[in-house]
Design a protein that fits this description.
Largest interface: A-B, 24 and 20 residues
Strand content of chain A: 25-35%
CATH architecture of the largest domain in chain A: 3-Layer(aba) Sandwich
Strand order of the largest sheet of chain A: 5-6-7-3-8-9
Strand content of chain B: under 5%
Order of helices and strands of chain B: HHHHHHHHHHH
Number of helices of chain A: 7
Number of domains of chain A: 2
Oligomer: heterodimer
CATH superfamily of the largest domain in chain A: P-loop containing nucleotide triphosphate hydrolases
Structural class of chain B: mainly alpha
Order of helices and strands of chain A: EEEHEEHHHEHEHEEH
CATH class of the largest domain in chain A: Alpha Beta
Distance between the termini of chain A: 42 Å
Radius of gyration of chain B: 21 Å
Number of helices of chain B: 11
Chain lengths: 244, 230
Protein backbone atom coordinates (compact mmCIF):
# COMPACT_ATOMS: atom_id res chain seq x y z
CA UNK A 1 0.00 0.00 0.00
CA UNK A 2 1.28 3.44 -0.90
CA UNK A 3 1.86 5.86 1.89
CA UNK A 4 2.10 9.60 1.83
CA UNK A 5 4.45 12.19 3.28
CA UNK A 6 3.41 15.61 4.53
CA UNK A 7 5.60 18.43 5.81
CA UNK A 8 3.33 21.07 7.29
CA UNK A 9 4.91 24.44 8.17
CA UNK A 10 8.03 22.64 9.40
CA UNK A 11 10.81 24.56 11.12
CA UNK A 12 14.20 23.11 11.90
CA UNK A 13 17.14 25.00 13.35
CA UNK A 14 20.74 23.94 13.80
CA UNK A 15 23.55 25.29 15.94
CA UNK A 16 26.58 26.05 13.83
CA UNK A 17 30.09 26.37 15.23
CA UNK A 18 30.86 29.91 16.34
CA UNK A 19 27.23 31.08 16.31
CA UNK A 20 25.36 31.67 19.54
CA UNK A 21 21.81 31.35 18.19
CA UNK A 22 20.60 28.37 16.15
CA UNK A 23 20.06 29.13 12.48
CA UNK A 24 16.89 27.96 10.73
CA UNK A 25 17.50 25.59 7.83
CA UNK A 26 13.76 25.20 7.30
CA UNK A 27 11.10 27.69 8.34
CA UNK A 28 7.39 27.08 7.83
CA UNK A 29 8.29 24.65 5.05
CA UNK A 30 5.42 22.69 3.52
CA UNK A 31 5.46 19.88 0.99
CA UNK A 32 3.10 17.01 0.20
CA UNK A 33 4.06 13.73 -1.46
CA UNK A 34 1.04 11.89 -2.83
CA UNK A 35 0.58 8.11 -2.58
CA UNK A 36 2.80 6.37 -5.12
CA UNK A 37 4.66 9.56 -5.99
CA UNK A 38 8.43 9.98 -5.96
CA UNK A 39 9.56 13.55 -5.34
CA UNK A 40 13.18 14.52 -5.94
CA UNK A 41 14.73 17.26 -3.83
CA UNK A 42 17.55 19.11 -5.55
CA UNK A 43 19.51 22.16 -4.49
CA UNK A 44 22.87 23.33 -3.28
CA UNK A 45 24.77 21.45 -0.58
CA UNK A 46 23.68 22.24 2.98
CA UNK A 47 20.35 23.68 1.89
CA UNK A 48 18.28 21.23 3.94
CA UNK A 49 17.49 18.33 1.58
CA UNK A 50 18.91 15.64 3.84
CA UNK A 51 17.34 17.34 6.86
CA UNK A 52 13.93 16.86 5.20
CA UNK A 53 14.75 13.21 4.60
CA UNK A 54 15.90 12.74 8.19
CA UNK A 55 12.75 14.41 9.49
CA UNK A 56 10.64 12.00 7.43
CA UNK A 57 12.70 9.03 8.67
CA UNK A 58 12.37 10.11 12.30
CA UNK A 59 16.12 10.61 12.62
CA UNK A 60 15.57 14.30 13.41
CA UNK A 61 12.70 16.08 15.11
CA UNK A 62 11.17 19.32 13.88
CA UNK A 63 11.42 22.41 16.07
CA UNK A 64 8.03 23.50 14.75
CA UNK A 65 5.27 22.28 12.46
CA UNK A 66 4.37 18.69 11.69
CA UNK A 67 5.85 15.85 9.69
CA UNK A 68 3.20 13.25 8.92
CA UNK A 69 3.63 9.93 7.21
CA UNK A 70 0.75 7.73 6.21
CA UNK A 71 -0.67 5.19 6.84
CA UNK A 72 -0.68 5.44 10.64
CA UNK A 73 2.37 3.25 11.19
CA UNK A 74 4.14 3.32 7.84
CA UNK A 75 6.81 0.83 6.88
CA UNK A 76 9.85 2.82 5.80
CA UNK A 77 12.59 1.63 3.50
CA UNK A 78 15.68 3.80 3.26
CA UNK A 79 18.65 3.78 0.95
CA UNK A 80 21.66 5.81 2.00
CA UNK A 81 24.72 6.93 0.08
CA UNK A 82 26.58 4.04 1.72
CA UNK A 83 24.89 0.62 1.95
CA UNK A 84 25.03 0.58 5.77
CA UNK A 85 24.85 -3.20 6.03
CA UNK A 86 25.70 -5.18 9.14
CA UNK A 87 29.09 -6.62 8.17
CA UNK A 88 28.72 -9.65 10.45
CA UNK A 89 25.45 -10.76 8.86
CA UNK A 90 25.05 -12.42 5.48
CA UNK A 91 23.34 -10.57 2.64
CA UNK A 92 20.13 -12.56 3.18
CA UNK A 93 20.14 -12.01 6.95
CA UNK A 94 20.65 -8.27 6.49
CA UNK A 95 17.37 -8.16 4.58
CA UNK A 96 15.55 -10.65 6.80
CA UNK A 97 16.06 -8.76 10.07
CA UNK A 98 14.46 -5.66 8.52
CA UNK A 99 11.60 -7.72 7.05
CA UNK A 100 11.00 -9.49 10.37
CA UNK A 101 10.96 -6.17 12.25
CA UNK A 102 8.37 -4.87 9.78
CA UNK A 103 6.23 -7.98 10.29
CA UNK A 104 6.75 -9.07 6.69
CA UNK A 105 7.35 -12.69 5.66
CA UNK A 106 11.15 -13.00 5.75
CA UNK A 107 11.02 -15.15 2.57
CA UNK A 108 10.48 -11.95 0.62
CA UNK A 109 14.15 -11.20 1.30
CA UNK A 110 15.26 -14.17 -0.80
CA UNK A 111 12.89 -13.17 -3.59
CA UNK A 112 14.24 -9.65 -3.59
CA UNK A 113 17.82 -10.88 -3.60
CA UNK A 114 16.93 -12.80 -6.75
CA UNK A 115 15.26 -9.70 -8.21
CA UNK A 116 18.38 -7.61 -7.66
CA UNK A 117 20.47 -10.35 -9.26
CA UNK A 118 22.18 -11.64 -6.10
CA UNK A 119 20.47 -15.00 -5.72
CA UNK A 120 23.83 -16.76 -5.51
CA UNK A 121 25.14 -14.37 -2.86
CA UNK A 122 22.54 -14.97 -0.14
CA UNK A 123 25.10 -16.43 2.25
CA UNK A 124 27.88 -13.99 1.35
CA UNK A 125 29.06 -11.41 3.86
CA UNK A 126 28.98 -7.74 2.76
CA UNK A 127 32.78 -7.40 2.85
CA UNK A 128 33.08 -10.01 0.11
CA UNK A 129 30.71 -8.09 -2.20
CA UNK A 130 31.53 -5.20 -4.53
CA UNK A 131 30.20 -1.69 -3.81
CA UNK A 132 27.44 -2.14 -6.39
CA UNK A 133 26.45 -5.52 -4.99
CA UNK A 134 26.30 -4.13 -1.46
CA UNK A 135 24.05 -1.31 -2.62
CA UNK A 136 21.83 -3.91 -4.34
CA UNK A 137 21.50 -5.70 -1.00
CA UNK A 138 20.60 -2.37 0.63
CA UNK A 139 18.02 -1.80 -2.14
CA UNK A 140 16.56 -5.27 -1.52
CA UNK A 141 16.42 -4.47 2.21
CA UNK A 142 14.58 -1.20 1.54
CA UNK A 143 11.92 -3.02 -0.48
CA UNK A 144 12.05 -6.12 1.75
CA UNK A 145 9.93 -4.34 4.35
CA UNK A 146 7.13 -3.91 1.75
CA UNK A 147 7.48 -0.17 2.28
CA UNK A 148 4.74 2.43 2.24
CA UNK A 149 7.45 5.07 2.09
CA UNK A 150 10.94 4.87 0.59
CA UNK A 151 13.56 7.50 1.36
CA UNK A 152 16.58 7.78 -0.92
CA UNK A 153 19.59 9.80 0.21
CA UNK A 154 21.95 10.17 -2.77
CA UNK A 155 21.70 6.40 -3.17
CA UNK A 156 23.93 5.97 -6.21
CA UNK A 157 26.40 8.82 -5.83
CA UNK A 158 29.17 6.60 -4.47
CA UNK A 159 28.97 4.19 -7.42
CA UNK A 160 30.57 4.29 -10.86
CA UNK A 161 28.21 5.54 -13.57
CA UNK A 162 27.69 2.16 -15.23
CA UNK A 163 26.69 0.47 -11.94
CA UNK A 164 24.57 3.49 -10.97
CA UNK A 165 22.69 3.22 -14.29
CA UNK A 166 21.87 -0.44 -13.68
CA UNK A 167 20.70 0.30 -10.16
CA UNK A 168 18.48 3.18 -11.31
CA UNK A 169 16.74 0.81 -13.73
CA UNK A 170 16.41 -1.73 -10.91
CA UNK A 171 14.96 0.93 -8.61
CA UNK A 172 12.40 1.96 -11.25
CA UNK A 173 11.34 -1.68 -11.67
CA UNK A 174 10.95 -2.20 -7.91
CA UNK A 175 9.08 1.11 -7.62
CA UNK A 176 6.62 -0.05 -10.27
CA UNK A 177 6.05 -3.33 -8.43
CA UNK A 178 5.67 -1.94 -4.91
CA UNK A 179 4.39 1.59 -5.64
CA UNK A 180 5.52 3.29 -2.41
CA UNK A 181 5.68 7.06 -1.93
CA UNK A 182 9.11 8.53 -1.64
CA UNK A 183 11.63 11.28 -1.46
CA UNK A 184 14.89 11.28 -3.39
CA UNK A 185 17.76 13.55 -2.47
CA UNK A 186 20.26 13.87 -5.26
CA UNK A 187 22.80 16.22 -6.83
CA UNK A 188 22.47 14.37 -10.12
CA UNK A 189 19.87 16.34 -12.07
CA UNK A 190 19.56 13.72 -14.80
CA UNK A 191 18.92 11.08 -12.14
CA UNK A 192 16.21 13.30 -10.65
CA UNK A 193 14.54 13.70 -14.06
CA UNK A 194 14.79 9.98 -14.78
CA UNK A 195 13.44 8.67 -11.47
CA UNK A 196 11.09 11.27 -10.01
CA UNK A 197 7.50 12.24 -10.80
CA UNK A 198 8.13 15.72 -9.50
CA UNK A 199 11.32 17.64 -8.88
CA UNK A 200 11.39 20.26 -6.15
CA UNK A 201 14.24 22.73 -6.51
CA UNK A 202 15.24 24.23 -3.16
CA UNK A 203 17.06 27.52 -2.72
CA UNK A 204 17.89 30.05 -0.03
CA UNK A 205 18.37 29.94 3.73
CA UNK A 206 16.02 28.95 5.20
CA UNK A 207 15.14 26.74 2.26
CA UNK A 208 12.20 27.67 0.06
CA UNK A 209 10.77 25.93 -2.97
CA UNK A 210 12.30 27.79 -5.93
CA UNK A 211 10.54 25.76 -8.59
CA UNK A 212 8.59 22.55 -9.09
CA UNK A 213 9.12 20.58 -12.28
CA UNK A 214 6.71 17.78 -13.22
CA UNK A 215 7.92 14.79 -15.20
CA UNK A 216 4.65 13.66 -16.77
CA UNK A 217 5.96 10.43 -18.20
CA UNK A 218 5.04 6.92 -17.02
CA UNK A 219 7.76 4.58 -15.77
CA UNK A 220 9.82 2.78 -17.17
CA UNK A 221 11.67 5.78 -18.42
CA UNK A 222 14.73 6.03 -20.53
CA UNK A 223 17.62 8.43 -19.99
CA UNK A 224 17.59 9.02 -23.76
CA UNK A 225 13.93 10.15 -23.66
CA UNK A 226 13.80 13.79 -24.94
CA UNK A 227 11.30 14.71 -22.20
CA UNK A 228 13.58 13.41 -19.46
CA UNK A 229 16.46 15.36 -20.98
CA UNK A 230 14.31 18.49 -21.30
CA UNK A 231 13.32 18.27 -17.61
CA UNK A 232 16.95 17.75 -16.71
CA UNK A 233 17.79 21.00 -18.58
CA UNK A 234 14.99 22.81 -16.71
CA UNK A 235 16.40 21.70 -13.35
CA UNK A 236 19.90 22.86 -14.28
CA UNK A 237 18.62 26.25 -15.48
CA UNK A 238 16.57 26.71 -12.28
CA UNK A 239 19.57 25.83 -10.12
CA UNK A 240 21.77 28.26 -12.08
CA UNK A 241 19.14 30.99 -11.68
CA UNK A 242 18.88 30.32 -7.95
CA UNK A 243 22.67 30.38 -7.56
CA UNK A 244 22.91 33.67 -9.45
CA UNK B 1 72.08 -24.14 38.01
CA UNK B 2 69.60 -25.27 40.68
CA UNK B 3 71.28 -28.66 40.78
CA UNK B 4 74.67 -26.98 41.29
CA UNK B 5 73.39 -24.69 44.02
CA UNK B 6 71.87 -27.62 45.97
CA UNK B 7 69.70 -25.09 47.83
CA UNK B 8 66.08 -25.71 48.88
CA UNK B 9 65.40 -22.06 47.99
CA UNK B 10 66.07 -22.79 44.34
CA UNK B 11 64.52 -26.20 43.68
CA UNK B 12 65.41 -28.06 40.51
CA UNK B 13 62.85 -29.14 37.94
CA UNK B 14 62.69 -32.69 39.33
CA UNK B 15 61.59 -31.39 42.76
CA UNK B 16 58.92 -29.20 41.20
CA UNK B 17 57.75 -32.15 39.08
CA UNK B 18 57.50 -34.37 42.20
CA UNK B 19 55.41 -31.72 43.99
CA UNK B 20 53.26 -31.19 40.94
CA UNK B 21 52.58 -34.90 40.52
CA UNK B 22 51.81 -35.19 44.21
CA UNK B 23 49.16 -32.44 44.21
CA UNK B 24 47.62 -33.75 41.00
CA UNK B 25 47.52 -37.42 42.08
CA UNK B 26 46.17 -36.57 45.55
CA UNK B 27 43.34 -34.60 43.93
CA UNK B 28 44.31 -31.41 45.79
CA UNK B 29 45.04 -29.58 42.55
CA UNK B 30 41.64 -30.38 41.07
CA UNK B 31 39.80 -29.48 44.28
CA UNK B 32 41.61 -26.24 45.10
CA UNK B 33 41.97 -24.95 41.55
CA UNK B 34 38.28 -25.78 41.05
CA UNK B 35 37.42 -23.82 44.20
CA UNK B 36 39.49 -20.83 43.08
CA UNK B 37 37.99 -20.93 39.58
CA UNK B 38 34.49 -21.17 41.03
CA UNK B 39 35.14 -18.00 43.03
CA UNK B 40 36.52 -16.27 39.93
CA UNK B 41 33.43 -17.26 37.89
CA UNK B 42 31.05 -15.95 40.57
CA UNK B 43 33.04 -12.73 41.01
CA UNK B 44 33.30 -12.31 37.25
CA UNK B 45 29.53 -12.76 36.84
CA UNK B 46 28.80 -10.11 39.47
CA UNK B 47 31.41 -7.78 37.96
CA UNK B 48 29.98 -8.28 34.47
CA UNK B 49 26.45 -7.42 35.62
CA UNK B 50 27.71 -4.22 37.27
CA UNK B 51 30.03 -3.35 34.36
CA UNK B 52 27.29 -3.85 31.77
CA UNK B 53 25.02 -1.31 33.48
CA UNK B 54 27.82 1.17 34.20
CA UNK B 55 29.51 0.72 30.79
CA UNK B 56 26.28 1.09 28.78
CA UNK B 57 25.13 4.08 30.84
CA UNK B 58 28.54 5.79 30.59
CA UNK B 59 28.68 5.33 26.83
CA UNK B 60 25.12 6.45 26.10
CA UNK B 61 24.52 9.18 28.68
CA UNK B 62 26.71 12.22 29.35
CA UNK B 63 25.52 12.63 32.95
CA UNK B 64 26.10 8.95 33.71
CA UNK B 65 29.60 9.31 32.28
CA UNK B 66 30.37 12.28 34.54
CA UNK B 67 28.88 10.39 37.48
CA UNK B 68 30.75 7.10 36.99
CA UNK B 69 34.05 8.39 35.59
CA UNK B 70 35.70 9.28 38.94
CA UNK B 71 34.66 5.93 40.42
CA UNK B 72 36.01 4.05 37.40
CA UNK B 73 39.32 5.92 37.50
CA UNK B 74 39.62 5.22 41.21
CA UNK B 75 38.67 1.58 40.69
CA UNK B 76 41.30 1.16 37.98
CA UNK B 77 44.07 2.54 40.20
CA UNK B 78 43.25 0.79 43.48
CA UNK B 79 45.47 -2.32 43.82
CA UNK B 80 43.75 -5.69 44.19
CA UNK B 81 45.48 -6.05 47.55
CA UNK B 82 43.36 -3.19 48.97
CA UNK B 83 40.08 -4.82 47.85
CA UNK B 84 41.25 -8.15 49.28
CA UNK B 85 42.08 -6.60 52.67
CA UNK B 86 38.92 -4.52 52.83
CA UNK B 87 36.64 -7.43 51.94
CA UNK B 88 38.23 -9.71 54.52
CA UNK B 89 37.62 -6.99 57.12
CA UNK B 90 34.07 -6.24 55.92
CA UNK B 91 32.78 -9.73 55.24
CA UNK B 92 35.04 -12.01 57.29
CA UNK B 93 35.75 -15.53 56.08
CA UNK B 94 33.43 -16.81 53.41
CA UNK B 95 32.53 -16.97 49.76
CA UNK B 96 31.11 -13.42 49.82
CA UNK B 97 34.55 -12.01 50.56
CA UNK B 98 36.22 -13.42 47.48
CA UNK B 99 33.27 -12.76 45.15
CA UNK B 100 32.91 -9.10 46.18
CA UNK B 101 36.67 -8.50 46.17
CA UNK B 102 36.95 -9.90 42.62
CA UNK B 103 33.92 -7.92 41.45
CA UNK B 104 35.33 -4.67 42.88
CA UNK B 105 38.75 -5.44 41.44
CA UNK B 106 37.69 -6.18 37.87
CA UNK B 107 34.38 -4.34 37.30
CA UNK B 108 36.10 -1.00 36.43
CA UNK B 109 38.26 -2.61 33.71
CA UNK B 110 35.23 -4.45 32.29
CA UNK B 111 33.05 -1.32 32.41
CA UNK B 112 35.68 0.71 30.54
CA UNK B 113 35.93 -2.03 27.87
CA UNK B 114 32.14 -2.13 27.45
CA UNK B 115 31.92 1.69 27.31
CA UNK B 116 34.64 1.79 24.62
CA UNK B 117 32.86 -0.96 22.68
CA UNK B 118 29.52 0.83 22.80
CA UNK B 119 31.22 4.09 21.82
CA UNK B 120 32.76 2.36 18.80
CA UNK B 121 29.41 1.23 17.36
CA UNK B 122 28.96 2.87 13.96
CA UNK B 123 26.37 5.68 14.41
CA UNK B 124 25.23 5.10 10.82
CA UNK B 125 24.21 1.56 11.75
CA UNK B 126 22.36 2.90 14.80
CA UNK B 127 20.45 5.22 12.44
CA UNK B 128 19.72 2.32 10.11
CA UNK B 129 18.39 0.22 13.00
CA UNK B 130 16.20 3.18 13.98
CA UNK B 131 14.78 3.66 10.48
CA UNK B 132 13.96 -0.04 10.15
CA UNK B 133 12.52 -0.02 13.67
CA UNK B 134 14.54 -3.04 14.73
CA UNK B 135 13.23 -4.29 18.09
CA UNK B 136 15.42 -4.01 21.19
CA UNK B 137 16.34 -7.69 21.19
CA UNK B 138 17.34 -7.58 17.50
CA UNK B 139 19.45 -4.47 18.13
CA UNK B 140 21.16 -6.09 21.09
CA UNK B 141 21.84 -9.32 19.23
CA UNK B 142 22.71 -8.04 15.77
CA UNK B 143 24.04 -4.53 16.39
CA UNK B 144 25.37 -3.92 19.90
CA UNK B 145 26.71 -7.35 20.80
CA UNK B 146 28.74 -8.01 17.61
CA UNK B 147 30.13 -4.49 17.79
CA UNK B 148 31.22 -4.62 21.43
CA UNK B 149 32.33 -8.27 21.54
CA UNK B 150 35.94 -7.64 20.42
CA UNK B 151 36.24 -5.10 23.27
CA UNK B 152 34.47 -7.47 25.62
CA UNK B 153 36.76 -10.43 24.93
CA UNK B 154 39.90 -8.35 25.43
CA UNK B 155 38.33 -6.85 28.57
CA UNK B 156 37.42 -10.32 29.82
CA UNK B 157 41.00 -11.49 29.33
CA UNK B 158 42.33 -8.56 31.34
CA UNK B 159 39.61 -9.04 33.96
CA UNK B 160 40.41 -12.74 34.26
CA UNK B 161 44.07 -12.06 34.95
CA UNK B 162 43.15 -9.37 37.52
CA UNK B 163 40.57 -11.68 39.13
CA UNK B 164 43.18 -14.39 39.59
CA UNK B 165 45.49 -11.96 41.40
CA UNK B 166 42.71 -10.66 43.68
CA UNK B 167 41.30 -14.07 44.58
CA UNK B 168 44.72 -15.44 45.49
CA UNK B 169 45.22 -12.53 47.88
CA UNK B 170 41.82 -13.09 49.51
CA UNK B 171 42.60 -16.79 49.87
CA UNK B 172 45.99 -15.98 51.39
CA UNK B 173 44.50 -13.57 53.93
CA UNK B 174 41.22 -15.08 54.92
CA UNK B 175 40.27 -18.46 53.43
CA UNK B 176 41.19 -22.07 54.10
CA UNK B 177 40.72 -23.41 50.58
CA UNK B 178 41.88 -22.51 47.10
CA UNK B 179 45.18 -21.95 45.35
CA UNK B 180 46.00 -18.86 47.45
CA UNK B 181 45.59 -20.84 50.66
CA UNK B 182 47.85 -23.61 49.29
CA UNK B 183 50.46 -21.06 48.21
CA UNK B 184 50.37 -19.52 51.66
CA UNK B 185 50.78 -22.95 53.31
CA UNK B 186 53.76 -23.66 51.09
CA UNK B 187 55.19 -20.23 51.91
CA UNK B 188 54.85 -20.82 55.67
CA UNK B 189 56.68 -24.14 55.38
CA UNK B 190 59.28 -22.49 53.08
CA UNK B 191 58.50 -25.12 50.43
CA UNK B 192 59.56 -23.26 47.27
CA UNK B 193 58.99 -26.33 45.10
CA UNK B 194 55.35 -26.46 46.23
CA UNK B 195 54.90 -22.73 45.54
CA UNK B 196 56.18 -23.24 42.01
CA UNK B 197 54.20 -26.46 41.53
CA UNK B 198 50.91 -24.71 42.41
CA UNK B 199 51.85 -21.79 40.16
CA UNK B 200 52.58 -24.14 37.25
CA UNK B 201 49.33 -26.07 37.84
CA UNK B 202 47.28 -22.88 37.76
CA UNK B 203 49.20 -21.53 34.75
CA UNK B 204 48.26 -24.70 32.85
CA UNK B 205 44.60 -24.14 33.71
CA UNK B 206 44.84 -20.49 32.60
CA UNK B 207 46.39 -21.61 29.31
CA UNK B 208 43.57 -24.12 28.79
CA UNK B 209 41.01 -21.35 29.43
CA UNK B 210 42.83 -18.99 27.04
CA UNK B 211 43.14 -21.47 24.18
CA UNK B 212 40.04 -23.55 24.88
CA UNK B 213 37.63 -20.73 25.70
CA UNK B 214 38.71 -17.18 24.82
CA UNK B 215 40.36 -18.03 21.51
CA UNK B 216 37.55 -20.41 20.49
CA UNK B 217 34.96 -17.69 21.21
CA UNK B 218 37.03 -15.11 19.33
CA UNK B 219 37.44 -17.40 16.32
CA UNK B 220 33.71 -18.04 16.18
CA UNK B 221 32.93 -14.34 16.46
CA UNK B 222 35.37 -13.41 13.72
CA UNK B 223 34.13 -16.12 11.36
CA UNK B 224 32.45 -13.51 9.17
CA UNK B 225 35.75 -11.67 8.70
CA UNK B 226 37.54 -14.85 7.64
CA UNK B 227 34.77 -15.91 5.26
CA UNK B 228 34.59 -12.40 3.82
CA UNK B 229 38.28 -12.60 2.90
CA UNK B 230 37.87 -15.91 1.02
Amino acid sequence: MSGNIRFHRVTKRFHRPGESAPRPVLENFSLDVAPGELVALVGASGIGKTTLLHLAAGLEHADGGRVELGPKTPRIGMLFQQPRLFDWLTAARNIEIASEAAGVDARIGRQLLAEVGLDDYASAYPASLSGGQRQRVALARAFGVEPNVVLLDEPFSALDELTARKLRILLLRLWQQHKPSGLLVTHNTLEAALLADRIVVLAGTPARIEATIEVDRARQRDAEDPLVFQRHRSIVETLERAAA
Amino acid sequence: MARLQQSPLIPDLADIWVELRSIVVSGEALKDIGTTLGRIVLGFTLAFAIALVVGLASARNRFARFFFEPALLLGLTVPGLVWALLCVIWFGLGIKTSVVAIALGIAPALAVSIAHGVGAVDPQLIETAHVYRLPLWTRLRYLWLPAILPFLTSGARLAFSLAWKVVVLVEVFGLSTGVGYRLNSAFISQNVAAVLAWTVAFAVVVAVIEFGLFQVIETRLRRWKREAQV
